[in-house]
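for the record, two folds in this file. i put them one after another cuz i was lazy. first one right below, seq on top, structure tokens after. the second one comes after a little note so u can tell where it starts
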Amino acid sequence: MLNIDRDLGRFKRIVKGQVRKDLRKYMSSGELIGRKGKETVSIPLHKIGIPRLRFGENKEGMGQGEGEEGSDPGQGQKAGEAEGEHLLEVEITVQELAEIMAEELELPRIEPKGTQSAKTAKHKYKGIATEGPESLRHNQRTFKRALKRQISAGTFSPKRPVVIPIKADRRYRSFVVEQEPRSSAVIVYMMDVSGSMGKEQKEIVRSQAFWIDTWLRHNYDNVDARFVIHDAAAREVDRDTFFRTRESGGTLISSAYKLCMEILKKDYPVDDWNIYPFHFSDGDNWSQSDTRTCMKLLKDEMLPIVNQFSYAQVDSQYGSGQFIKDLKENFADHEEVALSRVANRDAILDSIRELLGRGK
């Protein structure tokens, strides 16, 4: 059993090392999206060898005795010389994936702001009991108890150190219920869906949202996600609609910020929630007048209540890219504003580091 546990631990370390090595590829390709369950992520690994049987020499084994040469139905057909590609599907927990991401991107742990009034029951295995299921048996405590009993009874021999636990020796892990503060966060994803934001731009946003979700859910007990799309007007949608909708026409970014603030004021009291708005756009806005409205909304209403406002500008051949310049000009000294330009899929990893690397 110990050998199995040791081999399993070694295999998990190999898997984590491989995922970390290929993290940029996973981020840029979006390969893990759709493989994420509630607790685990299914990951296809290409470079871990599948265990095989190895045969030793057997000079008189089956099929090697005397006999007549028969006909081979496959004779004359040329066999392939190269090995097939081996894909191994492994599952790691969302927690483990977030830890790998944090190590590779050097992300600081987030410290939730404020105090949370809500509490949640946590079951922690802190105690030891004399009864319990065998799956929770504490082998080390059981062994020590049996050893003490045998020494006291004079039945233990150092020359023949055999320790045999009896029922009275068995000890089991037991849990206690503790009430802990429950840290909660809300993510508001906002995206420009005007005609200049094409399929490729939306796939980049989708990949970034996957990794943002993974990291924030690693840091908070409870996470809500809300989705806002906008062109000249903004509306709230579900996750699937968020990534599939494409509109045409002009862009008024302020419409998204106004709707975001309505959602936050209605459903997420600032004293109980850690707030993370993320906006994705190609940088086009209808007018400088609306841009000034956006800057005022951010300064007067949004920034005072959020942990961090993040803006990622996805390059598009149709977008002017002006909006990120306006944000830099107005909020260069604001720690709660994180800005990133995403030139292509290969820039996703660096963009995530820029957006999440402040530990806000």
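(here's the note) second protein begins now
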Amino acid sequence: MTAKVPLLRLLVAASLLAAWQLASGRLIAEIFLSSPWLVVHRLVELAATGEIFLHLRVTVTEVVVGYVLGAIVGIGLGFPTGRSTTLSQTIEPFLMAFYSIPKMALAPLFVIWLGIGLASKVAIVFLSVFFLTFFNTYAGVRNVSEELVSLARIMRASRGQVLTRVILPAAIPSIMLGLRMALPYGIIGAFVGEFIAANRGIGYFILFSASTFDSTGVFAGVFTLLALVVLANWALGRLERRLVRWKPVQETKVAI
């Protein structure tokens, strides 16, 4: 990343905030579009009273539990499926069929089955994360060079060594891609679940604010959710850089 990129990002952010501030109250009534200053003031108030942390803790718990379980099951199933042609041909059609069903359409069923508490939101997040991690793990394992696997076996590597020193390192970029792709979908899953039935959480807070025409509260909830996504994505990015240190960094250049 060149030195001018952070400056350009800051310039874009400042321009958007300035346009937002000018539009609020002048072009669009504040009841429909709150100003950035009012949103910041509301966030400070919510942080001071601790209300936003109460809702944030609920949403983070739902996302973390569902994300971890979905990633473990998705990666755990993706490895043997990617290495076994028989297993792949047996279960892939069923997984593809279930994957084609909109996950949000199943959210009301989870609420009916598991109630309005934590379990139903975790189930929605789990389902959102599972398929993305499974298919990316499956693709990463399937694309491992069989020549490398055969070479490792010729060198008398055990099955465990082949898995940990050949297959896993080669599949990690694809696995990390699945984990990063699944993150926003997992948060959206928790958000939708809270929209359908909940009495706590950022989704509930945003829905309640919207029902009272409190656009400032809506934006405060949205920016809290945005901060959560950015922080989680940053953490996954750090983890990815540690796991794939052997992979050269590729920069995309745009021709003008």
